[in-house]
Amino acid sequence: MTRTITHKLDPKLDLMLERVVDVPPNRVWAAWTRPEYVKKWFTPAPWQTVDCEIDLRPGGIFRTVMRSPEGQEFPNAGCYLEVIENEKLVWTAALTADYRPQNVPSVPLFTAVILLEPHGAGTKYTAIAIHGDEEAAKKHADMGFHGGWGKALDQLVALAKKM
Amino acid sequence: MTRTITHKLDPKLDLMLERVVDVPPNRVWAAWTRPEYVKKWFTPAPWQTVDCEIDLRPGGIFRTVMRSPEGQEFPNAGCYLEVIENEKLVWTAALTADYRPQNVPSVPLFTAVILLEPHGAGTKYTAIAIHGDEEAAKKHADMGFHGGWGKALDQLVALAKKM
């Protein structure tokens, strides 16, 4: 089945990483949706993801704990909104399990959209971070969105090649 | 098709209105999902809903403008999360169109879950407001959740009987 899956970008509020990678969509999907894989690629080294919980359904939790090189731990919990296997994954940090609103004042709040399309033997990979205002988008960009998400994607691809 | 549609209540954080009404689920659904109907019942009189926009899909906008008896207008925008015809409607005020996070500091932020089940010739109607903390739940209760949502439901039923 071919679907048209798009997101209308707002260049002032959204950040996007788009790249063709040489691993197929089902492996990218596995890397994103299985905790044992997420822990291996999700945070650019030397940061680590030391815990991960995934309840892969709309309303299900996506929880991670990141650890800084100095050993400080940063727990995050979000909520899946759309789960279309091998094609589209959406979750938001504005909600936690069962769509419960949550306040996360220290982090630029965003909704993430991951789009996967077959591209030859590989995948056209699109990751979008959707923010509520320009301040959050700028803060996220300044924190290194493009470099960070790009480096994490390198790690994902390296892992996916070994699956 | 019979589904098991439940929400695990947190009594400290959630407010619930449950009632059997003598109109069938498809009319309750119509009242909730068509702007011309929403404008007729959504706000307890003498408040009015003077505008309503509905894009009935996960990620679609649910926007209303309420008007106080003194003529002051209060715009609200939320985002649909689940849309299962005649059975379940979920939207959140934590997000707006296309899952974009939004800050609505003046209102107790909540996600709403509306569950409809056939009950004889009528409907078992369950409305749940899910909050992120006890303060928001209490504020919403103090604002008159039970009376307000109950009176609005009376208006919905009166409208549905005339459909």
Summarize this entry quickly.
Chain A is an alpha+beta fold and 163 residues long.
Labels describing this entry:
homodimer; 163 residues; alpha+beta; 7-stranded antiparallel beta sheet; two-stranded antiparallel sheet; 4 helices; globular
How would you describe the overall organization of this protein?
Two copies of one chain form a homodimer. Chain A has 163 residues and is α+β, with helices and mostly antiparallel strands. Chain A has four helices and nine strands; from the N terminus they run βααββββββββαα. The first copy, chain A, has helices at 25-33, 35-41, 134-142, 145-161, and strands spanning 14-21, 48-54, 61-67, 73-84, 88-92, 95-96, 100-101, 110-119, 122-131. In chain A, the strands form two sheets. The first copy, chain A, has a seven-stranded antiparallel beta sheet. A two-stranded antiparallel sheet of chain A has the order 6-7. In chain A, a hairpin with a 6-residue loop joins strand 2 (48-54) and strand 3 (61-67). In chain A, helix 1 packs across helix 2, helix 1 crosses helix 4 and helix 2 (35-41) crosses helix 4. Chain A is globular and about 40 Å long. The two termini of chain A are 25 Å apart. The mean pLDDT of chain A is 93.
